[in-house]
């Protein structure tokens, strides 16, 4: 008798789930985006909008860790000499504090500064890869694909912030590289609820043109029902 492939209940249809080759990819849950005084607020955004994604990410992290599955974190930021910051990005948005300027949590979006850290609620465990990325997509100018290939990863659960910027860009990049991506809606967030909704709608539209959309409860239910061999 053939065993049915586990699936996650999702839109636009069931996501064929193979936990041992499915990484949890947590995008940019950094103080600079989530806490007051960082890059997000310098652009005029209400950063409290992003906090709703914290609890779902904690649940997903706990589950992935307890099953011994791969967790990867990303951080958006730049070298202290800003040599990887194109002028087009530095001047974009006319923020009150530009990337590289001194803010309340150190230099804005600069590696090694307090604002660049991942928020304490979601601190990576030793051994979990942290991908530092200069752009919006997690594959651009990083070693992410090498890290995933070394672990035989073919599927990604993509969470984090913001839905329509770095999460979306990363899902598009991953889809083009052959990864099946599922986004749990409640584990992502945007400063703009309407962009959050539109971003998720775009992912699952047209038969899932970039991927699948579900939620944390449904991902965890499928994981609990799956035989996991790592
Ligand atoms: C932005 C991000 N919004 N992590 N970065 O600039 O989405």
TrEMBL record:
GO terms for molecular function: hydrolase activity. Residues 22-216 form the Isochorismatase-like domain. Pfam families: Isochorismatase (PF00857). InterPro entries: Isochorismatase-like_dom, Isochorismatase-like_hydrls, Isochorismatase-like_sf. Signal peptide: none annotated. Keywords: Hydrolase. The keyword Hydrolase applies. Gene3D superfamilies: Isochorismatase-like. SUPFAM superfamilies: Isochorismatase-like hydrolases. The keyword Hydrolase applies. It comes from the Bacteria. This is Cysteine hydrolase.
